[in-house]
Amino acid sequence: MKAESPSQVAFSVLDLAAVAQDNTPADTFRNSLDLAQNVEKLGYTRFWLSEHHNMAGVASSAPPVLIGYIAGGTSTLRVGSGGIMLPNHAPLVVAEQLGTLASLYPGRIDLGLGRAPGTDQTTARAIRGARFGVEQDFPRDIQQLQTYFSAANSTSSVRAIPGEGLDIPIYILGSSTDSAYLAAAMGLPYAFASHFAPGQLFAALKIYRQNFRPSATLAEPYVITCVNVIAADTDDEADYLSTTLKQMMLGVVTGQRQLMQPPVKDMSQLWSPDVAQYVMQMLAASFIGSPATLQEDLGAFLAQTQANEIMATSHIFSHEARVHSYELLAETMRVLGQPQAVEQLAA
């Protein structure tokens, strides 16, 4: 298969704002800002923050607040939501919040939208209140957002001030083929959550590209693939660091979530072979290793997916090791952009 030049592939960050053992959310936010400032210098395109609720180990329950914090501490990096879970929020409120951010940081704010609650049903009920039983219409809510952002809405009885007339890119997030059909029909860029749900990645990308309809905002399909990246100077060190990610996914599978745990030397003491197999299936789109290993594995993945952009999340216990992982990823992407690397991928 002939590959596009990886030099054309943007690389970005998804930050889950994980709270490490013995740390507080305040520590997490400071580390997030430090990471954003570092990746900005390294040439990363964007820095997205997710929305989760009622999780002790995840502090990203208010993406618009964190977006403002990160954007205020950087100067060129695009900052956005990966994503705002639209069923939890009235479209007008989202339009006003993102409109405020885009007014403060023009040309730098992205709006990634998801249809999941980002939490359990009991918590979703608490978030939505009386709206909980109302049938959700994700496509309609996105169209409502687009209306609020449009200059043509200036004569409406309900307007988003600020927000109206601003260029705030909307991205559809998804982990299934349903979202692929929607992003294609609406002519919007598509970000796939292969970092935890890789099973339908290739089917979803095929559906999105085959069914894409050009829109006023996007002439051709644009794909972001989100993956796990744990990079270190050696494969052994990366494997060791990756046990923090594996423990996190173990907590997701068993329902026993906890604060981000330090790495361990032997995962066999923490999970059974069956659970290990299930977790590793969920982590199939993970790139763990030294720069040489990353170049080979990530290069093959880019050739297979033909992604326009790769978004890396790095669930690493040590903040310094996480920053270094993103440094090594940036180096890897630059190496993959060299002509000789393209020739090898295309062979």
Automatic annotation (TrEMBL):
Cellular component GO terms held in the UniProt record: cytosol
Occurrences of domain Luciferase-like (ranges): 11-257
MF terms (GO), sorted A to Z: oxidoreductase activity, acting on paired donors, with incorporation or reduction of molecular oxygen
Pfam families (alphabetical): Bac_luciferase
InterPro entries, per database record: Bact_Lucif_Oxidored, CmoO-like, Luciferase-like_dom, Luciferase-like_sf
Similarity comment text for this entry: To bacterial alkanal monooxygenase alpha and beta chains.
Xref: NCBIfam families: oxido_grp_1 (TIGR03558)
Protein name stated in the entry: Luciferase-like monooxygenase
Upper taxonomic lineage: Bacteria, Pseudomonadati, Bacteroidota, Cytophagia, Cytophagales
